[in-house]
Each structure stands twice: as C-alpha cells, then as structure tokens.
Amino acid sequence: MQFRVFLRDFTQRKDEYLAFVKRCQGRHLLITLVQDSDCIDDHSGLRSVLEDVFATFNGLCSEYQVGNTINRTKWGFFSVRQYLDFYQVAQQLKDEKYPELTLVGPSVIDFEYHYLIRAMFSLANVHFDKVSSLLYVDRRGAPENTQLGIFDTVNKINLLHSICRLSPKSSDRILLTEVNWPLSGTAPWAPTSETECVSEDDYARFYYVTTCWRWPAVKWRRFTGTS
Question: Are strands 102-109 and 130-134 parallel, antiparallel or unpaired?
C-alpha cells in the first residue's frame, strides 16, 4: 500500500497523517515523501521535516519513497542532479540515525530510462534500497503493445532489472508504484478516450502480471482468468 505524505504541509497535518498510518497497521506500507519547491531548495529545512517524519512514524513504517516523479518539472525537479541532492539529505539522515529504514527511488515515470540511468550511475553518495518506477504502458492500447519496436511491458521490466543489477547505487529489488491502463468510466480524468479504457477486472489481471514478475523474465501472456 502506498501512502503519499506532502512535505509542504506535514507539520500542519501531522496528526491526520499519523492517524491514517496507525489505521494501516498490519499492511505493508510504503510512504511516498512528496517534494515541494521549498524543501528542494532548502536542504536544512528538508532535513528538519524529514527528521520529524521519521520520528513520527518510527515503529509504524520503515519504507519510504524519497521524492515522486522526478522527470516531470511540474513536480518540482528540473534535473536528476537536483533530485540526487534532495535524496542525499534523506540518505545522510538514515545513515546517522535510522539505519533500519528502507529508502526507495528514484521514481522515474514513463519509459524514460535515460533519467533512471543518470540517477543509478552517478557519483552522488546515495543508495536505493529498492528501485521504484511509475512504469506506464501504452495509453492507447494493451500492455503487450510495444514501444521502440520490442519493448512491451515485460521487456521494459527486463531492461529496468538489468539496469538495477549493473548499478552500484541500488539493489535489484523493484517496485512498480504506478501503471496507467485507464479504467472505464473515469473520464474526464483518464489520459485517453473511453475506447481504450478497460474494466477493473482486466486492470487487476494486468496488475497481477506486473507485480508477480520475477527474474528470470517471464514471457508476456494475456491473463484471461482470475488467477
């Protein structure tokens, strides 16, 4: 289960966030720390709010995705280097005070692995305990459709895993935190027309395939049953 905590209002909404996390006990919880421009620019302020977050949820959650959607400027980051400086604040805090935490990143959206490679082969003093990806599929068709000739969903995951295995900055554990085969009836918020939308059952079967992926790679096949 993924729960987003917005750093810009954590102090004001701390009790609300804490109450929700307590209600989620017994589930595997990933807290995504959503950045804002102030904390991106002010690292001392960022460290202060991260200390507050980690202390507040200590004993309740140990897994945090640091930052969200780093390759879209509307989310605040204008370069991978800027994101790595942001992540490094969390890394230093973990190393000094919270070694038991699992830090997740870099949260690249879409099939834009050049951003991922930049993050995973940098000289920054960071380590991704798990590698997160918002791995969107073809917005106008099925997840077995290809991009750049050969990259259907499974081959995209294969490439992601290969990058992780080669990187000195990460483990090879992957979290697919978001997919976008849109649900029927979600217009006008769906990223495509109703023609390309699918039922919740079809979406669940696709999500089952992606989350149950294991190395060595499986070959794609459309799930037509419920198991």
Answer: parallel
- What's the pLDDT tens digit per position in 16-46? 999 999 999 999 999 999 999 999 999 999 9
Residue 82 lies in a domain: yes
d(C-alpha 86, C-alpha 169), whole Å:
15
Which residue range forms the structural domain that includes residue 75?
2-211
pTM, entire model:
0.85
Core vs surface per residue 68-98: b (16+ CB within 10 A) or e: bbbbeeebbbeebeebbbbbebbbebbeeeb
How many domains, the chain?
Answer: 1
Q: What is the pLDDT of residues 86-115, one digit of tens each?
A: 999 999 999 999 999 999 999 999 889 999
